[in-house]
Specification:
InterPro entries: Alkaline_phosphatase_core_sf. It comes from Streptomyces longisporus. The protein is built from 21 helices and 13 strands. The protein is α/β, with parallel strands linked by helices and 587 residues long. The strands form three sheets. Strands 5, 6, 7, 8, 9, 10, 11, 12 and 13 form a nine-stranded mixed β-sheet that branches. The protein has a two-stranded parallel ribbon with strand order 1-4. A two-stranded antiparallel sheet has the order 2-3. Strand 2 and strand 3 form a beta hairpin.
């Protein structure tokens, strides 16, 4: 027992009497110290090895975190063979501080390094799936959507496991990094003279490597990765806050905001208008060597089938405001004529009175307006922005079949219910419809197949197809399999939509359909564009004549060199082409 402990225990007692302290009531601190001391005496080599192992692990954790890149494509060994200047600065600070401030700084800096590690990992995930880094201001609210996606795609058990794993990872990252920093700072203080010389030597080496531009396999030896990452995050926060204020002003400006109803789309009066987004229908589907052969053959075959039914098409390219996901950003960009590239812009737009393309039809008073939203599984206040008289979500279309991963129902079924519930109704006005198709949503397993239209019923016919299909786990980790299945899903969606048009379209039907964004990098590649195809299909030749000056390709497949516009340019070009007169509304 330590002397100071004995003194505490015996305080106030006669010095001649040796107190008896039962072992079970001894302070835990004393018991642990005694046991550890005994073990050190019995196993000195093992204890020394454990200490070294812990120290090495602490150093690996800290150095790894300091050098960790924020992109999967940069995750190579050479990235971890550099000298981080932050480690040198940290060592100098630890050597200069007294014990208590040193421990406080070690804990705080370790926790901060753990937090930065988490942000770097989020950057990797967002870059892989959404083609952009994580935004520490805006993107936290997307994490519940990620949970829902995992549950819908992989099942509840996997979602729970992933959530628990993520929470554990966060806690471990924060706590272990703090403990590692404490361990290393204590080691530096214990061997202060040696540590000081080593720190000076490391400083000299780092300065020389930086000045001479020395590299290992093309990567600079002198690293300031963590300082740079912090500066980048700070710049993102600053730019996000600045963008929020600027976009509020932009959203108040509208080239057609004050256009009288009678001067909106006069050249489409009497037409049944259908605006359709096909999930993840991107340029890669048409041009990638793996996906393109099947998709191009389908587009060409469906062009011929539509022509036989009297329909003709023109197609071009739009550059989407999003990539890999966040489809609502693509939808709102197309319909608003504004560049909606993040969640803050989306919220600002939805709360504004900026006119959407679909709302323009409602404002005329000459169309009924409806939405078909099989991907919506909760309240959807955005319907007001889109100018919809009503909309039908996933629970309002009578589907009794199986979910196909994230997609609540096959596109063919959703389109048939659109026909049954809305399009076939006798109306005093033509119909303007906004239809969002979801069967080509990742992970592209299982994929529905076309069935006879008259056999769709309540969707139970898809049970056998679902059972025979791939499981998400079969393809989700394989790029070649994901590419092949993605291509099949696009073929299915295009076929379902164009067959519906053949079956139910008429002389006054005008269909505008496009992709919302490219598929994730695992399918489209790390350097894919953000372009998506767009087509306008109609029987009335005057409809396509109005856009002849656009230079779009004939048919459903846009040529490689067909015009490419930003997605935000489409609204105003469309309104202008069909006779709308600009009457700007300004802030």
């Amino acid at each position: 027992m330590q002397p100071d402990t004995v003194e505490n225990v015996t305080e106030g007692m006669s010095p001649e009497v040796e107190p008896e302290v039962p072992e079970r009531t001894a302070p835990v601190r004393v018991t642990l110290r005694a046991r550890l001391a005994a073990r050190r005496e019995r196993h000195p080599t093992a204890v020394r090895n454990v200490r070294w192992a812990v120290t090495v692990l602490a150093a690996v954790l800290v150095l790894g975190a300091l050098l960790l890149p924020n992109r999967l494509t940069a995750l190579h060994v050479d990235r971890f063979l550099r000298i981080p200047v932050e480690a040198i600065i940290g060592a100098a600070v630890a050597l200069a501080l007294p014990r208590r401030p040193r421990l406080v700084v070690a804990v705080l800096s370790g926790a901060a390094l753990g937090a930065l590690t988490i942000v770097n990992l989020l950057d990797m995930g967002f870059d892989e799936y959404l083609g952009r880094p994580f935004n520490v201001v805006l993107d936290w609210e997307l994490l519940p959507d990620a949970q829902s996606y995992i549950q819908d795609s992989m099942g509840r058990a996997v979602e729970i496991g992933a959530t628990v794993g993520a929470v554990v990872l966060v806690l471990l990252s924060l706590s272990l990094m703090a403990l590692a920093m404490v361990r290393l700072s204590n080691l530096l203080a214990l061997h202060k003279q040696v540590a000081t010389r080593a720190t000076l030597a490391a400083t000299t080496v780092w300065v020389l490597c930086s000045a001479l531009g020395l590299q290992i396999m093309g990567v600079p030896i002198a690293s300031d990765r963590t300082a740079g990452a912090v500066a980048i995050q700070a710049a993102r926060v600053r730019d996000t806050l600045r963008d929020e204020a600027e976009f509020q002003k932009v959203a108040k400006v509208d080239e057609f905001g004050n256009t009288p109803p009678g001067q909106l789309v006069p050249d489409l009066r009497g037409k049944d208008m259908i605006f359709t987004f096909i999930e993840s229908y991107g340029r890669s589907a048409i041009e990638d060597p793996v996906e393109a052969p099947g998709v191009d053959a389908t587009l060409d075959a469906r062009t011929k089938a539509l022509a036989k039914a009297g329909f003709h098409a023109k197609s071009g390219w739009l550059t989407s405001a999003t990539y890999g996901g966040s489809s609502w950003l693509g939808h709102s960009t197309t319909m608003s004529g504004l560049w909606i590239s993040n969640q803050q812009r989306y919220r600002t737009l939805m709360a504004s009175d900026h006119m959407s393309l679909t709302e323009a039809f409602k404002k005329t008073g000459d169309w009924d307006t409806v939405g078909i939203m099989p991907g919506v599984q909760k309240s959807w206040p955005e319907s007001k922005f889109y100018g919809l008289d009503s909309y039908r979500n996933a629970f309002q279309m009578g589907y009794k079949g199986p979910k196909f991963s994230w997609s609540t129902m096959p596109d063919q079924y959703a389109l048939q219910q659109f026909q049954n519930l809305e399009h076939s109704k006798k109306r005093s006005k033509p119909l303007m419809s906004l239809v969002i198709l979801t069967s080509s949503h990742q992970p592209w397993a299982p994929i529905p197949k076309m069935v006879p239209w008259d056999d769709l019923g309540d969707g139970s016919v898809f049970n056998a197809i679902h059972k025979a299909g791939n499981k998400p786990s079969d393809i989700i980790a394989s790029s070649p399999k994901s590419q092949a299945e993605y291509g099949k899903s696009v073929q299915y969606s295009v076929t379902a939509l164009t067959q519906w048009l053949e079956r139910y379209g008429n002389d006054n039907t005008v269909l505008v359909f496009l992709g919302d964004h490219q598929p994730i990098a695992r399918v489209s590649g790390n350097h894919a564009s953000r372009d998506v195809p767009i087509s306008i299909v109609a029987k009335d030749p005057k409809v396509l004549d109005k856009i002849d000056s656009w230079g779009w390709s004939d048919g459903l497949r846009p040529a490689h060199d067909a015009p490419v516009w930003k997605m935000s340019a489409f609204r105003d070009r469309f309104l202008t082409a069909y006779g709308s007169t600009p009457h700007p509304k300004k802030d």
